[in-house]
Amino acid sequence: MNRMGNIMDNKNNILKDLPKIDKLMTDSRFDGLNSEFVKISARNVLNSIRNEMPEKIDTGVIFDRILKQYEVLVKGTLYKVINATGVPIHTNLGRAPISKELFDEASDIVCGYSNLEYNTEKGKRGDRYHHAANYLRMLTGAEDAVIVNNNASAVFLILNTFCKNKEVILSRGEMVEIGGSFRIPDVMKGSGAKLIEVGTTNRTRKSDYIDAATQKTAMMMKVHKSNFEIVGFSEETALNDVCDAAAEKGVISYYDAGSGLFEKVLPDSVCTDLTIPQTIKNGFDLISFSGYKMLGGCQAGIIIGKKDLINKLKKNQLMRMLRVDKITLALLQAVFRKYLKKSGESLPVNSMLTNKDLQSKAHRLAEMLPCSTEVVSISSTIGGGSCPTSEIESFGVSINIKMKPQAIDKKLRNHSTPVIARITDNRLVLDVRTISETEFETVSSAVEGLL
Q1: pTM of the entire predicted model
Q2: What is the distance between the alpha carbons of residues 272 and 261, in angstroms, rounded to a whole number?
Q3: What is the tens place of the pLDDT at every residue in 270-290?
Q4: How many CA atoms lie less than 13 Å away from 313 in the CB half-sphere?
Q5: Is 164 within 8 Å of 195 (Cβ atoms)?
Q6: Where does 98-347 sit in CATH, by number?
Q7: Closest CA to 429 of 450, 407, 400
Q8: Count of CB atoms within 10 A of residue 412's CB?
Q9: How many helices (H) and strands (E) does the chain have?
Q10: Which CATH number fits domain 82-92+350-448: 3.40.1260.20, 3.40.720.10, 3.30.160.390, 3.90.1150.180?
Q11: What is the DSSP string of 153-175?
Q12: How confident is the model at residue 201 (pLDDT cuts 50, 70, 90)?
């Protein structure tokens, strides 16, 4: 007890030397800085030191730590990075980028009041989903639509609404897990639905769905495999066959289309995915897909299908928890209008995927960099679980300096505007597919910091 008491007494004596916040605030090193941010940073640092039980108090170190904390507050923890990986739908970098043109179009709605839930013609409350549904009916041919905050929410909502305490038939080959440990079987369990597995991992037929149906069956579900493919001795039940089987048994047919796209911008040799308008012609009662992957919009789960089923989804109490705000709806409206104008190729993600000028673009970047470089032919993946086995030809700029590629990578990531590159064949490469030419100067500045 005496030894422990001595340790605590020693700690308390050391902590008495901690400077007071008021005194710290008067130091000239904080002149011109935001006083509230300095105060918050100082308080955090001093609290951390109290928990660390230091052997001595180093005032210089304290000031350095406060300034570092201050920089984090000023910059924020969410900030712009430059995607030099060549992956347009980068899962960790925000997926599909949104153009400033679309953001400006949406800002007029977002930054003021809007008719989000107001019918100006009738002068009374309106339906917030009416806006998106109008465009989706025109774009897909669906009877109705509703929007939730992502496709995982869409899957959960659909299963909970129609299949709680009932059976859902799904192929064993489609019990997928995507990023963030999102597993279809676990989602089903959480929604209250009972999973009925049919077929095998590599082969599932229409007859498997029909034979598995019982009086407790509520739905036949098909899931886009997204981030993997089954090749070799395999057989997948066609979309229309799942719809026909469901119709034969009088149950709902539902397709989780995953990424979803409105226009075919890549050849079948690269991506065989059907567009949503093509998919709905198979006869599905409900289809859900993501808004910020191949579609090129913002995070959203888009559900289209039969009007009576959409109405039931809207009445589920979960809708209140999963509904989207005016920012999402305004951005989606801008994206939908692009597709209605047949100008979807101009959306950033589609422009990146179809750019034919990458070699010249790589040379333009190389000329701006203050070091030895080489323009190299490489390949890019699409990302976001889209067409996972396909790669598209690209060009990049290899940074040729006397430094290990891992060290270059780390320094670029720690630039004031981080540059996220890739290491290929033991060299660091900047894939120009995903770098905007307006970002070339920033990339050049980051590379200059290596020298």
Answers
A1: 0.89
A2: 11
A3: 777 889 999 999 999 999 999
A4: 28
A5: no
A6: 3.40.640.10
A7: 400
A8: 23
A9: 18, 17
A10: 3.90.1150.180
A11: HHHHHHHHHHHTTSEEEEEGGG-
A12: confident
